[in-house]
């Protein structure tokens, strides 16, 4: 999944298997890390050659799935489709600290506020912690959901780890004892795709969902404070009727350092908006971002056609059977097919019975005909023979 992040004076972007970092102040070539050319997982034991379910190991595409930046901006971590967990120190020059592997493919990762560990959520609903100070140490299981995890964050005071899953749940757990659940934030109608605790508001939580809404929570109590439907922006004249009918997932939320502004990234809304007293307005390009845009542009050009038609979240939506008319019509057709199949089976059975009955009747008639013929012939022959052979008395 493509992503864009700020890491100190660097802007970090991902495109397929590449991580690209561009310095905003200094001219020069960007730092590029290609996962397809990175270190491969060693296969020293028999377990290394087997996949998650005990079968053959799946070959990943090396596509980057998620990126995290530490609060100080000194560290960056990524995870890819080959289950790598790669840790970087960002600076001049960039340095790759370690490459480790997760048990399953990961969907989200985040640094703790102390920057001593990277928390990684995987597709099975488990959260593992990877040490920063011990870069070769394997991950440790911390907590688990019953559904695929999609987003993960930690509270500014490092007390809580907040996780969100495909089943619309947001769970607030104590970081040091994750089995101890502080609260649940429940209110979305589709999967929860992103989480953010805005700067300067450590007791608030913003969540984005596949239902197109952003909700503000007081997360320690699980209380909803405010809700916005971002899909209302798609009524702008630049959005076609076909685009308006498509579902839009919130893919990312971020805030300004002072916590006064929040930016929301929404699928199928390819325009940057800013909020003023008159409402939402299209934002113009800024000269400061042009050098960064030009540096990243060559890596994105091959991805743009796919980004316009593909939805990263399409497979996460629930299948809705709320249309009773459609359901009843499908049920009627299914019952008719079952009845027709049953009738065909009954007709075939009846035909088979008639054939067997006809065969038995024919055999019986033949047997009866032979018996009658033999009896009649023998009786008549004997009578005629006896009549001819015996002398007749004279009169």
From TrEMBL:
<feature type="compositionally biased region" description="Basic residues">
    <location>
        <begin position="349"/>
        <end position="358"/>
    </location>
</feature>
<dbReference type="InterPro" id="IPR001680">
    <property type="entry name" value="WD40_rpt"/>
</dbReference>
<dbReference type="Pfam" id="PF00400">
    <property type="entry name" value="WD40"/>
</dbReference>
<dbReference type="GO" id="GO:0043527">
    <property type="term" value="C:tRNA methyltransferase complex"/>
</dbReference>
<feature type="repeat" description="WD">
    <location>
        <begin position="185"/>
        <end position="227"/>
    </location>
</feature>
<comment type="function">
    <text>Required for the formation of N(7)-methylguanine at position 46 (m7G46) in tRNA. In the complex, it is required to stabilize and induce conformational changes of the catalytic subunit.</text>
</comment>
<feature type="compositionally biased region" description="Basic and acidic residues">
    <location>
        <begin position="362"/>
        <end position="395"/>
    </location>
</feature>
<feature type="region of interest" description="Disordered">
    <location>
        <begin position="337"/>
        <end position="395"/>
    </location>
</feature>
<keyword id="KW-0677">Repeat</keyword>
<dbReference type="GO" id="GO:0005634">
    <property type="term" value="C:nucleus"/>
</dbReference>
<keyword id="KW-0539">Nucleus</keyword>
<comment type="pathway">
    <text>tRNA modification; N(7)-methylguanine-tRNA biosynthesis.</text>
</comment>
<dbReference type="GO" id="GO:0005829">
    <property type="term" value="C:cytosol"/>
</dbReference>
<comment type="similarity">
    <text>Belongs to the WD repeat TRM82 family.</text>
</comment>
<protein>
    <recommendedName>
        <fullName>tRNA (guanine-N(7)-)-methyltransferase non-catalytic subunit WDR4</fullName>
    </recommendedName>
</protein>
<dbReference type="GO" id="GO:0106004">
    <property type="term" value="P:tRNA (guanine-N7)-methylation"/>
</dbReference>
<dbReference type="InterPro" id="IPR036322">
    <property type="entry name" value="WD40_repeat_dom_sf"/>
</dbReference>
<dbReference type="InterPro" id="IPR015943">
    <property type="entry name" value="WD40/YVTN_repeat-like_dom_sf"/>
</dbReference>
<dbReference type="InterPro" id="IPR028884">
    <property type="entry name" value="Trm82"/>
</dbReference>
<keyword id="KW-0819">tRNA processing</keyword>
<keyword id="KW-0853">WD repeat</keyword>
<feature type="region of interest" description="Disordered">
    <location>
        <begin position="39"/>
        <end position="59"/>
    </location>
</feature>
<feature type="compositionally biased region" description="Basic and acidic residues">
    <location>
        <begin position="39"/>
        <end position="53"/>
    </location>
</feature>
């Amino acid at each position: 999944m493509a992503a864009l992040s700020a890491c100190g004076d660097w802007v970090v972007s991902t495109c397929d298997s590449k991580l690209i970092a561009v310095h905003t102040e200094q001219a020069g070539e960007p730092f590029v890390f290609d996962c397809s050319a990175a270190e491969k997982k060693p296969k020293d034991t028999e377990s290394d050659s087997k996949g998650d379910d005990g079968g053959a190991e799946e070959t990943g595409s090396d596509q980057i799935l998620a990126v995290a930046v530490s609060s100080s901006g000194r560290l960056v971590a990524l995870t890819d489709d080959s289950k790598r967990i790669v840790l970087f120190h960002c600076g001049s020059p960039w340095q790759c600290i370690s490459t480790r592997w997760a048990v399953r493919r990961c969907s989200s990762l985040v640094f703790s506020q102390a920057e001593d560990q990277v928390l990684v959520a995987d597709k099975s609903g488990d959260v593992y912690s990877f040490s920063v100070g011990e870069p070769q140490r394997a991950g440790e299981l911390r907590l688990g959901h019953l559904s695929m995890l999609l987003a993960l964050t930690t509270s500014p005071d490092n007390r809580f780890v907040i996780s969100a899953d495909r089943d619309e749940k947001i769970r607030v757990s104590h970081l040091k004892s994750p089995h101890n659940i502080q609260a649940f934030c429940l209110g979305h109608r589709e999967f929860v795709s992103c989480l953010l605790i805005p700067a300067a508001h450590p007791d608030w939580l913003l969540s984005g969902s596949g239902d197109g809404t952003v909700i503000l929570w007081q997360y320690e109590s699980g209380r909803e404070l405010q809700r916005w439907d971002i899909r209302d922006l798609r009524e702008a004249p630049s959005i076609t009727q076909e685009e308006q009918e498509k579902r839009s997932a919130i893919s990312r939320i971020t805030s300004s350092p002072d916590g006064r502004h929040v930016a929301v990234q929404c699928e199928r809304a390819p325009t940057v908006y800013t909020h003023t007293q008159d409402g939402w307005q299209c934002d113009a390009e800024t000269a400061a971002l042009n050098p960064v845009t030009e540096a990243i542009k060559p890596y994105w050009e091959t991805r743009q056609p796919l980004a316009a038609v593909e939805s990263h979240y399409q497979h996460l939506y629930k299948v809705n059977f709320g249309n009773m008319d459609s359901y009843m019509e499908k049920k009627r057709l299914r019952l008719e097919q079952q009845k027709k199949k049953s009738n065909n089976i009954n007709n075939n059975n009846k035909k088979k019975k008639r054939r067997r009955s006809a065969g038995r009747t024919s055999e019986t008639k033949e047997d009866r005909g032979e018996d009658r013929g033999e009896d009649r012939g023998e009786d008549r022959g004997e009578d005629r023979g006896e009549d001819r052979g015996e002398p007749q008395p004279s009169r």
